[in-house]
Amino acid sequence: MKQHDAMYIDGSWRPAAGSDTIEVVNPADERVIATVPAGSAADVDAAVRAARAALPGWAVTPPEERADRLAALHGRLTERAEEIAATVTAELGSPLAFSKAVHAGVPLAVSASYAELARTYAFEEKIGNSTVLHEPVGVVGAITPWNYPLHQIVAKAAPALAAGCTVVLKPAEDTPLVARLFAECVDEAGIPGGVFNLVTGLGPVAGQALAGHDGVDLVSFTGSTAVGRRIGALAGAAVKRVALELGGKSANVILPGADLAKAVGVGVANVMANSGQTCSAWTRMLVHQDHYAEAVELAAAAVAKYVPGERVGPLVNARQQSRVRGYIEQGIAQGARVVAGGPEAVEGPGYYVRPTVFADVTPEMTIAQEEIFGPVLTLLKYEDEDDAVRIANGTVYGLAGAVWAGDDAEAAAFARRLDTGQVDINGGRFNPLAPFGGYKQSGVGRELGPHGLAEYLQTKSLQF
Question: Angle at the Cα of 227 (from 447 to 349), degrees rounded to 5?
Answer without folding.
Answer: 95
